[in-house]
């Protein structure tokens, strides 16, 4: 068994001048990012801005055309898939299966990078799986069949599977997509409470405010990076998302939130 | 669930499997046009294996040893091999309908084998199974490319449609080659062989079929966790630490290899790879630690039984075994189609 990757530095995941293209079309280009241990990073941007592509590059599932990614200070292309999976877990958007598997089966898959053909399942693996199920509050559903789960439950199973990898970095691609509002808020609360570094693509800008830092993507480029209140300026919202945005203050607790309004094409031009 | 089984439990299962297989082989030898007493079968085996020296009718002995035993062993190996192929393809392609016959791999292997046998490609330097393997790989490659470039309404039915196109193309090529170059008698023999036929099986085939299946079984069992990791697709497998491209290459080459060996011995037998893994999933769940050995066992039992049926169903005639498997497999295929439609 290989040792898990460790680093003394506080930077767990970073990339320099990262680019990915299909033929001559660049899906993401020139992205540099450093993520510190324990940080919660949100990736926001309109549809097609390259959020999913960036996550897949960071997860090593797709190979960059340009630049490189470092996990725990080591270049991703110098690591094998198993080493990466022991350190970094990735939750895709809506991964589904027709197989008749139980919740327990699905979460046990998360132990794959720690097992080998000659290494049997151990008590420690049982322990990790049990913890992962508890972390997402699904321990009571462990024997349920996958196909009977709701969307929110399925997403939590995926997160539990990722946690069973005992990763130090967790990447999530729009985990709240297609969930009702209650499930969305519950899931975000769950993710923010996890003891790992998280990088998460999000659609809802107000939900993204709960992240430590936001990376704003537009047409495959990183156009802003920083604390949510600093990067989501009215100007940025108009340029990147094509909407009018104003910060409001909740009179009850003083929290700041975004009020977003549609801009017609004419208004977008006159504001420029 | 993947609870490890104790050594004792493992041993019990192993002994149980071997016993069931032995009984099936015994039945496969005893039942047929001329029924042979099980005691005579056992005595023959004792004579041949330990030179026990029982006094037996040399005709009975000949039927048992040179004809029915190799035939039954090859049927078993072939069933196990095709079941494993279906299992691999269903897991990797995430498609419940995937199996070598429906994906055109068997048809490609037939074309490859006919090219060697009838046309004489390679001038005798290339053996039949090598030609069949080349044909199987080319066919799968073509079908995969066609499925990928023709993004239709649903990706999962696309590969099956591509497989049908591939099967038609390679079957037509095979028919063309036979008509063009084979004598009338050769042509009849080949056509019968193409439908799946165990009549010509002798000991030399046993020594090809059993090692091929043993290798495939070991490879599959080695990759059992990787096969599990494909449950949620290939990106998910990659993020679980599986080297996706390498795993796919090894396992699909393994499936093509087994299909090629089986096709060059018995022709293309359809639906075994479809029916067996689905039936076994109902029995042992969807973890490959159990699916791989159980599918091999049930596949072997299924094809030995199908072979017995093919010999006794019509008096004085031997049905091609492919006819029996298709009669059972096609309704199962239909059932899966209907169930798949309801799931989506």
UniProtKB/TrEMBL annotation, chain A:
Family annotation (InterPro entries): AAA+_ATPase, ABC_transporter-like_ATP-bd, P-loop_NTPase
Key word Transcription present: no
Gene Ontology MF term list: ATP binding; ATP hydrolysis activity
Residue ranges of every copy of the ABC transporter domain listed in the record: 13-244
Alphabetical UniProt keywords: ATP-binding, Nucleotide-binding, Translocase, Transport
Function statement: Part of the ABC transporter complex HmuTUV involved in hemin import. Responsible for energy coupling to the transport system.
PANTHER family found in the cross-reference section: HEMIN IMPORT ATP-BINDING PROTEIN HMUV (PTHR42794:SF1)
Family designation: Belongs to the ABC transporter superfamily.
Protein name in the entry: Histidinol-phosphatase
Organism listed in the record: Pseudomonas matsuisoli
Organism lineage string: Bacteria, Pseudomonadati, Pseudomonadota, Gammaproteobacteria, Pseudomonadales
Automatic annotation (TrEMBL), chain B:
Keyword presence, Transmembrane: yes
Keywords on record: Cell membrane, Membrane, Transmembrane, Transmembrane helix, Transport
Protein's UniProt keywords contain Transport: yes
One of the record's GO cellular component terms: plasma membrane
InterPro entries hit by this protein: ABC_BtuC-like (IPR037294), ABC_transptr_permease_BtuC (IPR000522)
Highest taxon of the lineage: Bacteria
Membrane topology, record value: Multi-pass membrane protein
Family affiliation: Belongs to the binding-protein-dependent transport system permease family. FecCD subfamily.
Protein name: ABC transporter permease
């Amino acid at each position: 068994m290989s040792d898990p990757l460790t680093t003394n530095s506080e930077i767990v995941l970073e990339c320099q001048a990262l680019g990915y293209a299909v033929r001559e079309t660049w899906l993401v280009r020139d992205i540099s990012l450093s993520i510190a241990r324990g940080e919660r990073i949100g990736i926001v941007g309109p549809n097609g801005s390259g959020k999913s592509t960036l996550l897949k590059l960071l997860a090593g599932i797709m190979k960059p055309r340009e630049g490189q990614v470092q996990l725990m200070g080591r270049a991703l292309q110098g690591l094998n898939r198993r080493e990466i999976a022991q350190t970094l877990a990735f939750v895709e958007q809506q991964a589904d299966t027709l197989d008749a598997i139980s919740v327990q089966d699905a979460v046990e898959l998360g132990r794959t990078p720690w097992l080998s053909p000659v290494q049997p399942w151990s008590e420690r693996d049982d322990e990790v799986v049990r913890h992962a199920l508890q972390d997402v509050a699904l321990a009571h559903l462990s024997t349920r069949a996958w196909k009977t789960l709701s969307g929110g439950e399925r997403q939590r199973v995926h997160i539990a599977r990722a946690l069973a990898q005992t990763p130090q970095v967790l990447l999530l691609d729009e985990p709240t997509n297609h969930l009702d509002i209650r499930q969305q808020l519950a899931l975000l609360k769950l993710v923010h409470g996890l003891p790992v570094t998280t990088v998460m693509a999000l659609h809802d800008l107000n939900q993204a405010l709960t992240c430590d830092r936001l990376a704003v993507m537009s047409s495959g480029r990183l156009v802003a990076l920083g604390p949510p209140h600093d990067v989501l300026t009215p100007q940025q919202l108009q340029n990147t998302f094509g909407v009018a945005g104003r910060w409001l203050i909740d009179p009850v607790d003083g929290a700041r939130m975004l009020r977003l309004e549609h801009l017609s094409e004419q208004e977008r031009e006159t504001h420029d | 669930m993947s609870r490890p089984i104790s050594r004792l439990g493992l041993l019990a299962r192993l002994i149980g499997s071997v016993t069931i297989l032995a009984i099936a082989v015994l039945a496969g030898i005893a039942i047929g046009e001329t029924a042979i007493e099980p005691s005579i079968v056992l005595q023959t085996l004792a004579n041949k294996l330990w030179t026990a020296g029982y006094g037996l009718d040399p005709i009975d002995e000949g039927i048992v040893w040179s004809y029915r035993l190799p035939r039954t062993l090859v049927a078993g190996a072939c069933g196990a091999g095709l079941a494993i192929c279906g299992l691999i393809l269903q897991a990797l392609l995430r498609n419940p309908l995937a199996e070598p016959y429906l994906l055109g791999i068997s048809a490609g292997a037939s074309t490859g084998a006919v090219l060697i046998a009838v046309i004489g490609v390679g001038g005798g330097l290339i053996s039949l199974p090598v030609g069949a393997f080349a044909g199987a790989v080319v066919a799968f490659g073509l079908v995969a490319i066609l499925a990928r470039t023709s993004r239709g309404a649903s990706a999962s039915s696309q590969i099956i449609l591509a497989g049908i196109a591939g099967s038609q193309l390679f079957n037509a090529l095979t028919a063309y080659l036979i008509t063009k170059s084979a004598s009338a008698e050769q042509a009849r023999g080949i056509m019968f062989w193409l439908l799946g036929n165990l009549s010509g099986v002798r000991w030399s085939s046993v020594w090809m079929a059993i090692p091929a299946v043993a290798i495939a079984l070991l490879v599959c069992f080695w990759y059992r966790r990787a096969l599990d990791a494909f449950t949620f697709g290939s990106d998910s497998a990659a993020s679980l630490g599986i080297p996706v491209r390498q795993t796919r290459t090894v396992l699909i080459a393994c499936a093509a290899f087994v299909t090629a060996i089986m096709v060059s011995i018995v022709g293309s037998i359809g639906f075994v790879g479809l029916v067996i893994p689905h039936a076994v999933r109902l029995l042992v769940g969807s973890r490959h630690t159990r699916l791989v050995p159980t599918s091999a066992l049930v596949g072997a039992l299924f094809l030995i039984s199908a072979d017995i049926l093919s010999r006794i169903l019509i008096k004085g005639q031997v049905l091609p075994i492919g006819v029996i498997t298709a009669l059972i497999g096609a309704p199962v295929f239909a059932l899966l189609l209907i169930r798949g439609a309801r799931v989506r």
